Amino acid sequence: MNRKICAVITARPSYSRVKTALQAIKDHTKLELQLVVAGSALLDRYGNTIDFIEKDGFTINEKVFMVLEGENKTAMAKTTGLGVMELANVFYNLQPDAVLTIADRFETIATSIAAAYQNIPLVHLQGGEVTGNIDEKVRHANTKLADIHLVASEDAKKRVEKMGENPNCVFNTGCPSLDIAAQVLKAPKLDFNPIEKYGGVGGNISAKGDYLVVMQHPVTNEYKAARENVLKTLRVIDDLNIPTFWFWPNVDAGADGTSNGIRSYREINKPKNIHFFKNMESVDFLKLLVNSKCLVGNSSVGIRECSFLGVPVVNIGTRQNRRLRGENVIDIDYNEDAIKNAIKLQLANPKKTKSNIYGNGDSGKKIAEVLANTDLNFHKTIMY
Amino acid sequence: MNRKICAVITARPSYSRVKTALQAIKDHTKLELQLVVAGSALLDRYGNTIDFIEKDGFTINEKVFMVLEGENKTAMAKTTGLGVMELANVFYNLQPDAVLTIADRFETIATSIAAAYQNIPLVHLQGGEVTGNIDEKVRHANTKLADIHLVASEDAKKRVEKMGENPNCVFNTGCPSLDIAAQVLKAPKLDFNPIEKYGGVGGNISAKGDYLVVMQHPVTNEYKAARENVLKTLRVIDDLNIPTFWFWPNVDAGADGTSNGIRSYREINKPKNIHFFKNMESVDFLKLLVNSKCLVGNSSVGIRECSFLGVPVVNIGTRQNRRLRGENVIDIDYNEDAIKNAIKLQLANPKKTKSNIYGNGDSGKKIAEVLANTDLNFHKTIMY
Amino acid sequence: MNRKICAVITARPSYSRVKTALQAIKDHTKLELQLVVAGSALLDRYGNTIDFIEKDGFTINEKVFMVLEGENKTAMAKTTGLGVMELANVFYNLQPDAVLTIADRFETIATSIAAAYQNIPLVHLQGGEVTGNIDEKVRHANTKLADIHLVASEDAKKRVEKMGENPNCVFNTGCPSLDIAAQVLKAPKLDFNPIEKYGGVGGNISAKGDYLVVMQHPVTNEYKAARENVLKTLRVIDDLNIPTFWFWPNVDAGADGTSNGIRSYREINKPKNIHFFKNMESVDFLKLLVNSKCLVGNSSVGIRECSFLGVPVVNIGTRQNRRLRGENVIDIDYNEDAIKNAIKLQLANPKKTKSNIYGNGDSGKKIAEVLANTDLNFHKTIMY
Amino acid sequence: MNRKICAVITARPSYSRVKTALQAIKDHTKLELQLVVAGSALLDRYGNTIDFIEKDGFTINEKVFMVLEGENKTAMAKTTGLGVMELANVFYNLQPDAVLTIADRFETIATSIAAAYQNIPLVHLQGGEVTGNIDEKVRHANTKLADIHLVASEDAKKRVEKMGENPNCVFNTGCPSLDIAAQVLKAPKLDFNPIEKYGGVGGNISAKGDYLVVMQHPVTNEYKAARENVLKTLRVIDDLNIPTFWFWPNVDAGADGTSNGIRSYREINKPKNIHFFKNMESVDFLKLLVNSKCLVGNSSVGIRECSFLGVPVVNIGTRQNRRLRGENVIDIDYNEDAIKNAIKLQLANPKKTKSNIYGNGDSGKKIAEVLANTDLNFHKTIMY
Question: What is the predicted ipTM?
Fold first, then answer.
């Protein structure tokens, strides 16, 4: 009998990150993939991730509506509580041999609790990293609830082990988001017109010359500052007047601030050099990135994919603090002059060094192998 | 303005454990206690803990009904999810400066999430210990969600720090359950008739001569074995024919197994030497304990209070595995002969050595001092 | 394609009442039965109805744990809210052609909402009757949410139609609980020893001579009086000193009062002429009833089954107020003398007249026929 | 002691409708208003009703986030279930003497259940009317759960009584939405520039000449047709080329269809004669209405306020079917030609007859008087 591995996808970036791992699980002769799509991944206004998942050929076993409207911290907590209740049912019905929880978004702990409390072995992807917000707490709590750890770097592996996890249960499989990056590196040409293919709103810019890409997410602990911060970046980008493809943030307690900032800036200033997208297929997105002059913002894409691809990055603010990074990144505070100068620096002397700190582009397969061959157990004690 | 400290009591043993800390918070000139009584602490069939709390003079700010009936693992998970949703409301309304979550029962993570996700500094009591079930996962996940750690031993302190917590936020305050034990040690005379005062059911035994005390809880991961295990202890105790005061287990996924085992054994065998209680005031319970010949079962009381009091203990099974213990304890498996022999050994050559590994009897005050004077913060990153 | 009829069983008495209808649906060539067992029907301490359901040969499609502990009115409301959330999932997954909600227990409105709000045709069983508590409100609200009405008497039919329901959608199928009564009437001999077969607790009485049966439920609106009321009946029955088989009440907001009253009376007074049961198979129960001298209490069994069977009834209090009744019933208040006199009257001059006001014993089949052949629709407007 | 009347506002139109009643309750010497704002009334993307409430000088006692994202029927059911759970807490804490539930939106039944199940007298506003969707079921179920009925017309009064409600508990107070209309009739001049004051998006039109107003809501049972229907109206209005102020629909299971229809039509066709608003203060809205040539759509405003104000209405589709209406209304199907002709007819020969079928403009005060002086009771039985 094949091992049933139940993965819970709760948001767009989580899906992009683990897509090749899901494919490798699906394709593995000893494994059966059970796919649960939940939370904002089901919702239209966060980019209908579920449509991409289905287009990629995955069968969805269960859909879990759990996002409570409100976009404040209380709603975030209650969404998580609701997620525990709903996912407890789902796992009870699907009876998986192991459950996969991904990284550190606030609602991922719902997956962890619903599995761990029902004595289902829990596999945590991408533990052991360091940031500095609520996701920091969530990530390490996920580690302590999990039985198997699939981490993305040696750095992360050491950290998970030091927290008292059994080294036999910690595997550095690299980050599966690099698997797609590795494919893109083999055929990096931008072979589509982004606006024609993806619509979006804003200036009708071209991707044929130099252009920038921006991804800026709200930072949970700085909820009120989200709007102000995104306005700084908007003014800099508007002022630089270089064609720029800007991606909307994913859902978070601060989503409202960032999204509202963008919306009102657009209405009033109508910046002609910026085009806004909600979402893009991973391969297309990485092609857009690899051909860009620089990624600006605070996305983890700047830390992972861009280090592997050798794309220059201007990383703003604290969101990626203490994450292991390559030499392609310039770190900068939320200061308009500083942001502008950093972008100019990357345009003049681009930092394009590639590195393999987050894997070699074969993580999906490594992950499937671990899941097929490791002992699955839900009974653990701290090591020391 | 006084700091508002919101403590959430979800079960009888949690209350007993922290009672002196609650009192010290209430009495502290710089602190204001907000008390939330939740879960099984509200329920009649788990001993109406709330009545004891009110009789002790505490004002209850909120009651949270969250226990979903079912007594299986799915219900346990859903109770936790419901707890997150309810407690999110409670904290939103009470606006505490810090929330106190206690130890490692499954539903304590609901308190942790509801506080942490709303950016309320979280204080975790009794982290850093080692057991081997779902409470092991819960305890360490609570640690990773918490900002301040009040641990009960040097052993626990080291463990919490090694998990990457900031040593400035880890305080060895000892276990407040010993504060009551310290009072009892000063006046240990059994000055009441247990059956007269507390009713209960079973044989009409006397506490004037030699007697035993039994507390045996179900072990979550061995759900189905709970009934069988308690029957072993019942047969041994029945057979030994020494007057025995037996305390019902607290609620857990296996409560049913243990409770059913006891109920059916009683109906059929009507053991004359055993009297059963649901609950007892802490001071009375400790007096009963300090005058007993031996505590039998798997309660943490055998590890903590009894080490401080110098009461001999026969500790059965895995529930207290790897907990730091004094020299008063004999550890034994679920084997009837072994249990019987261990009890006989403690009767013949009682191990009465006292120790201070879990504190000196002043933990409540130490806890209040830390809460009054430490910086409260909800922003942390792992240390290494 | 067969019509999928999804029935939701939430409690022991609901199951007994509709068992033959479920069987007829299951057996019908044009229908497929989807069975959901929920609420107290899943719980050990309410008699493990689910075991009886499975023993009767039904396949259970979904189990829904939704009972929030607390046994107060707030918990009752929250159990209902939780039920809506859970059953919404269940119906989404099962995609039935119609949902069956039964009678008027508080949680049945959860079934109604979860179906109606998802545009699933809702069939309500046993609407149009009259009582006087929260179940009165629930019953008629169920009627207004339902599309098809299967009522148990002409009286009820008129009432449902007068509320504005389309007469084409109201069917007097009789009460299916009488189907079993009709079988029992054909072979009424008490061919088993109740205590041997069902255990229970209390006096070791015989069913060979004269005996009484008691069923007394708490009345929601008189929550605090439940304990007092049951004590009155207990004292009368104890005093009369006739062998009596007493059935525990089902779960309700007042269950605690009634159950506690019984428990404490038993502990203190140890009445030798009373034996207590939690549950009994329907056929056996009806045999016990048909051979008894009188049914005492406030159960609807006294109104329905006993009118059909011609069993004398002493009906106490307001719980069955305004229900259509046969000539077998003496109605009486909660007054010890009155209760005692009424029982004596039934013993001396038993009222044994049979009637068919609640059907002819073929309701199950009638219900299945309606479900197989009526237009199913979820769009209705009030008639006048 | 003043009677505490707890009103639950769950959506923008509900607030507009009862605003003067809330004011009259607040101002009444024998009453105390407890205001709970819940559901979409709290949410930014449904027009931030809460801001209007606060600006109107009301104190909000509790906020209840309960809207589950998803905009499908399952989410609608689950939102309702969640509402029951949350509101049960709220009423437990506020301990009102009566709870006010308003009209027939799907989530209003949550208010009804949470009150009725806790034995709090329930007052239902605007029962007894007729429509034809899920709100039809909800409205009458609310009636059956309620103890006091405050209806808006003689027609509605008869219907509620015929459903078996006690005539002593049914009061025709008229519709409080007309109270504001009565004020506006006294000073009907359009003394503000709508676009300057309220922003909004779309063509920069003037309210100085002739103009139309459109309000079109999705109809729950025709979920998929919502988009198509709104496009018909959009094309007609675009084609007529008369300045038109268009109001976005409120939240419903079909909100997405209607809103998406509007959004995509705007993006593609950029109609110059239409300006879109999310919300407007009631008085301003009624001034805009009273000076308009015609109201187009399916809003109940066309039936109530416009009959009182004598504003011509083109009412499209089934949403207002069987509602009592004045002579100002032309009813029409979703047919582009028919809609266009009806509007032209109203422009050429406007139907401006005023009527008092929904009250005289003093409903708020009448409602407060009933609440101050009627017996409050939670125990009822059907009348016949």
Answer: 0.87
User: Is the per-residue pLDDT at A228 higher than 80?
Assistant: yes
Q: What is the pLDDT of residues C148-176, one digit of tens each?
A: 999 999 999 999 999 999 999 999 999 99
Helix ranges (H only) for C28-171 are 49-55, 73-94, 108-116, 134-145, 154-162
Q: What pLDDT, in 10s, does the model give residues B329-378? A: 999 999 999 999 999 999 999 999 999 999 999 999 999 999 999 999 99
Interchain CB distance below 8 Å, D85 and B89: no
Cβ contact (<8 Å) for C117 and D164? no
State yes or no: pLDDT of A224 exceeds 80: no
Q: C-alpha angle B110/B114/B115, rounded to 5°?
A: 120
C→A contacts (Cβ < 8 Å), by residue, are 85-86, 89
Q: Do domains B3-175+359-373 and B182-348 have the same CATH topology?
A: yes
CB atoms within 10 A of CB B60: 14
Options 3.50.50.60, 1.10.730.10, 3.30.70.260, 3.40.50.2000; CATH of B3-175+359-373: 3.40.50.2000
Domain over D3-175+360-373 is classified CATH 3.40.50.2000: yes
Q: Is A281 helix (H, G, I), strand (E, B) or coil?
A: coil
Neighbours of chain A (3+ CB pairs under 8 A): B, C, D
pLDDT at A270: 92
Residues counted in chain C = 384
Query: What percent of chain C is modeled with pLDDT above 90?
Result: 79
Report how far residue D170's alpha carbon sits from residue B53's, in angstroms, rounded to the nearest whole number: 46
Rounded to 10 degrees, the C-alpha dihedral D223/D226/D227/D231 comes to: 170
**For residues D359 and D357, what is the distance between their CA atoms, to the nearest angstrom?**
6
CA atoms within 13 A of residue B302's CA, in its CB half-sphere: 28
Q: A48 — alpha (psi -120 to 50), left (phi > 0) or beta?
A: left
Query: Are D143 and D335 contacting, i.e. CB atoms less than 8 angstroms apart?
Result: no
With beta carbons under 8 A apart, name residues in chain A contacting C85.
Answer: 85
Residue with tokens 């287009």: A55
* CA gyration radius, chain B: 20
* Pick from A69, A74, A267: CB nearest D67: A69
What residues of chain C lie within 8 A of the CB of B42, using their CB? Answer: 70
Short-list D246, D284, D278, D299, CA closest to D45: D278
Pairing of strands D201-202, D274-277: antiparallel
Q: Do B44 and C82 touch (CB under 8 A)?
A: no
Query: What is the Cα Rg of chain D in Å?
Result: 20
The closest of C88, B81, C36 to D72, measured between CA atoms, is C88
**The CATH number, out of the four listed (3.40.50.2000, 3.40.50.300, 3.40.50.1980, 1.20.1300.10), of the domain defined by the range A182-348:** 3.40.50.2000
Alpha-carbon distances, residue A196 vs A192, A275, A290, C82, C351 (angstroms):
8, 12, 19, 46, 86
Residues of A in contact with D42 (CB under 8 A): 70
Count of helix runs (H) and strand runs (E) in chain A: 14, 14
Tell me the chain A residues in contact with residue B116 when contact means C-beta distances shorter than 8 Å: 134, 137
Q: What are phi and psi of A6, to 5 degrees?
A: -100, 115
Residue closest to A12 by CA, chosen among A318, A194, A248: A248
Helix, strand, coil percentages, rounded to 5, for chain C: 45, 15, 40
Going from N- to C-terminal start, the domains of chain B cover 3-175+359-373, 182-348
Instruction: Determine the residue of chain C that is closest to D73 in CA distance.
Output: C118
Whether B85 sits inside 8 A of D85 (CB atoms) is yes
For B324, the token pair is 């730091």
Q: What angle do CA A252, A256, A261 make, to 5 degrees?
A: 130
